[in-house]
Amino acid sequence: MEREIITTSDGSVTIYLPELKETYHSRFGAIQEAYHVFIKNGLAHTHGQPVSILEIGFGTGLNAFITFLESVKNNQEIYYTGVEAYPVAAEEAAKLNYVSQLDAEENREVFNTMHTMPWEETVKINKTFTILKRKQRFEDIQDSALYNLIYFDAFGYHAQPELWGADVFAKMYKALKPDGILVTYACRTVIKKAMEQAGFITSKLPGPPGKREMLTAIKA
After folding, report:
1. Closest alpha carbon to 124 in 139, 103, 110
2. Model confidence pLDDT, tens digit, residues 40-87
């Protein structure tokens, strides 16, 4: 499948798949979207406590890298699991400008490690951040009560509607600990209903730049 690296409105890049007419991150700002959806409305609600995170769609590694930076800044212990069925190649990741855009040159090797480390192997990056990458289809996840927080960052509903159904959200519900939170950039009515069918209590929140709303879902 053809892949292009394009620049988004905040200067950070993303990967575009012409065949799907889909980008890995928002065209209105990849970094802005990551901070708004997953940090401000996700990680921030863990109040600095030790937290276990599942990312659905490891992709470019942007969400993982920003979460690492937050763990260092706040001295927060984070156990991070990123699931991806179709990994970004290390050579492609090397063309992404997130390290420079985030003014994080001292941690460039961390970003590189996130893309070159072995799959299915836990790596302790530093005293606060431990990461595991799993090469796996989202539909095949069988985790039970392991995570406090899920970053749900799959391709959009128009591109892969099967990833946004009640069956997948039931797996997410099972994977969360009691009172766990799922956050996503999406806010279609059909997605909200699928989450609720899986047992979640949902809320609409203001979205990132270029998007009116986003969703959070709590395991009741």
Report:
1. 110
2. 999 999 999 999 999 999 999 999 999 999 999 999 999 999 999 999
- Cβ atoms within 10 A of the Cβ of 86, count? 10
pLDDT digits (tens, 9 = 90+) for 160-197: 999 999 999 999 999 999 999 999 999 999 999 999 99
The DSSP secondary structure of 19-62, one letter per residue, reads TTTEESS-TT-HHHHHIIIIIITTGGGGTT--EEEEEE--TTSH
172 CB-near residues (< 8 Å, 6+ apart): 56, 141, 150, 152, 182, 198
Is the pTM here over 0.90, yes or no? yes
Superfamily of domain 31-219 in the CATH hierarchy: Vaccinia Virus protein VP39 (3.40.50.150)
Spatial distance between the Cα atoms of 217 and 196, rounded to a whole number of angstroms: 8
Given a contact cutoff of 8 angstroms between Cβ atoms, the answer to whether 81 and 176 are in contact is: no
